[in-house]
Amino acid sequence: MRRVAFALIASSSLLLGVGATAGSAQGAPASTVLGSWSDLAGGLPDHKVFALVKRGSTLYAGGEFTSAGGKPGTAYVAAWSSVDDTWRSVGGGTNGTVRALAITDDTVIAAGIFTAAGGKSTASRVAAWSTRDDTWSAFGVGATAAEVLTLAARSDGRVYAGGTFTAPVTGALYSLRDDTWTAVAGPYSYNRVDALALRGSATMTSGDDTLFVGGPFNPSPGAFIAALGPTASWAPLGSGLSA
Fold it and tell me: What angle do CA 209, 213, 215 make, to 5 degrees?
């Protein structure tokens, strides 16, 4: 069966894909080398996977799944080791869907529609998993989100989160600096932000600050995609995208 893949990540000679079903592997994530798909330690056979990030030999997956490789405590976010091809719990996971993942230094950031991570109700919507201490904690203060759909992390520690926020102001794009979330202002309103990307990579240099933002903007200077430049100025990308 062939279905939609929601996320891809390249690792050496491997291409890792996630979705409802990746290629012919009956569970996701799955990996392919030269076009041949195989699952990862039994895969994630139920529901969707929305996000992948990799740190060293560990691949983190987030989504709607309730179990990874049949291991307990692997609901919605789990870790797969390429060393022993085994899925592991990430502190007991979250209690709801994880839509986005990002990594800064020794911290894995998870975002989505959950209200607790590792059993901690303070870690709602956006939470941080310390790979050093193996603990979940709240990530940032000052914003209330209905749902967080996408993340982007810069090498200087700033993190962007997109989705739908309700406080302190209604918006869709927030920036975290010094542990506080602040709304990112723009010349037009956002209905929702669905995707974020930083020029180059998530570990871009401090001199390359362009943030690309995708979503249904209103009004829409770049239709569904725009760029926030290093001088905090917004611009459409060419003629934009049409629905």
Answer: 175
